[in-house]
Design a protein that fits this description.
The chain has helices at 2-15, 19-24; strands spanning 27-34, 39-47, 60-69, 74-83, 91-99. The protein has 101 residues and is an alpha+beta fold. It has one domain (2-99). Strands 1-2-3-4-5 form a five-stranded antiparallel β-sheet, with no helix packed on it.
């Protein structure tokens, strides 16, 4: 069912010539939900430009993860991303460190 919506979104993007818009920026919806003072749950759903110009669709994904604020200057994050269509990777584990200054 979600695949039908992604196909429809790809058709709308093509019909409205929004490919150039996707080249400038992805279309995403993200949110943060604070769990505690140092722990935040994050989600992101989006569609990005397909770098393979021969393909007729764009990668769509959903991502969920957590951010742990070690202190005021360091955030550690862990996330899981999955593709919503054949143009995106099936599964990816994302790990990161953010240094704030």
């Amino acid at each position: 069912m979600i695949g039908d919506y992604i196909r429809l979104l790809n058709q709308i993007i093509s019909a409205l010539a929004l490919d150039s818009v996707l080249q400038a920026a992805p279309l995403t919806f993200a949110t943060e939900i604070p769990i505690s003072s140092d722990l935040t749950f994050v989600t992101d759903v989006g569609i990005i430009t397909n770098t393979e110009k021969a393909e007729d669709g764009h990668p769509a994904f959903i991502l969920g993860g957590i951010i742990y604020s070690l202190n005021d200057n360091i955030d550690l994050d862990l996330g899981l991303q999955t593709g919503l269509n054949k143009y995106e990777s099936d599964l990816a584990l994302l790990v990161g460190i953010t240094l704030l200054y």
